[in-house]
Amino acid sequence: MSHTLLPLGEAELPYGGLARVPATDEPAPSTITAARHVFAYERIRTTGSTLHMTGDGGDALLMQSPEFTLRLAARGSVLRALRDLHGWAKLDRTSPVRVLRRLAQSGHEPCPHWLTQKARDMALSKPARGPGDLLHGDAELLSLCGIGRTAHADAQFASAFGVRLESPFLDRAVVEAALTFRVGDRGSPWSYKPQLVEAMRDLLPEVIAQRRTKGGTDADHHLGLRAHLGEVSALLDGWLAGHGLIDPQAIRAELRAAATGRETPWGLLEPVISAEMWGRAVKANPPPSWVRSSTRRKAER
């Protein structure tokens, strides 16, 4: 086994290479980072391989999050919940009260001001998951359902560049094995993905096995948006605006603020850009041609 680092440069920053995004069944999560994905796929092909394995779903399935404190408390493990709450606050360099406030507001994010009334009405017509689902449903499965669905779009993206994308953490057998662990045994602020570390103990380098946190990518996204702000802003008078779904001026103001490095709701902002590129790619792609097979015609006779 050989370990090769990809030398990512300015050309592979987020928001670069958006014009190369192919048409998929729905907006692919990898759209914003298309440049580095395409770079990786092309490098994979040069090695003679056509397979790429991703870690999609791993965090949702194996990593505990602050939301688990609510589930621990609901199951009577109040002391453990309080201990974990203080642990998450320490990791985030904030207070337990602020962590609790974030948890209370989870699922109640305000509707982005750049969406038109038409878009809001369309969103309200679909049933939404409430915060109670984290306590009464299975939080991991709720999260994995969305990840698994959008992973198909990422697989279509990779396929357009000759690479087969596989996501082992979304495999049914892996999901079922991971969910056999009790909530209290699925990690904590001091134990990062313990089941994975134990299962891969003979393969993981010690420095990886001892990890306690996961790095963020916000800095890359601020930098990439600053580098491509002009071209990204120019996209906003296109497909979504033409369908009356966004206010281009409002979202341009949000993009300019994000490019300065201010705290940004990436989870609300970036899906707009992904949806715009998806709409353009689908529109530019030739429509499918449906052909009735000779076998079907014979059966109908």
Q: Main β-sheet, in a few words?
A: 2 strands, parallel
Provide mean pLDDT, rounded: 86
What form results from the Cα inertia axes? globular
Helix/strand order: HEHHHHHHHEHHHHHHHH
Broad structural category:
mainly alpha
Radius of gyration, rounded? 22 Å
Spatial separation of the terminal alpha carbons: 57 Å
- Proportion of strand residues: under 5%
Count of individual helical segments: 16
Approximate helicity band? 40-55%
The main sheet orders its strands as 1-2
Could you state the oligomeric state of the chains shown?
single chain
- What is the β-strand count? 2
As residue ranges, the low-confidence spans are 130-137
Q: Could you characterize what this model shows?
A:
The chain is mainly alpha-helical and 301 residues long. Helices cover 52% and strands 2% of the residues. It is built from 16 helices and two strands. A two-stranded parallel ribbon has the order 1-2. It is globular and about 55 Å long.
Summarize the model shown.
Helix content is 52%, strand content 2%.
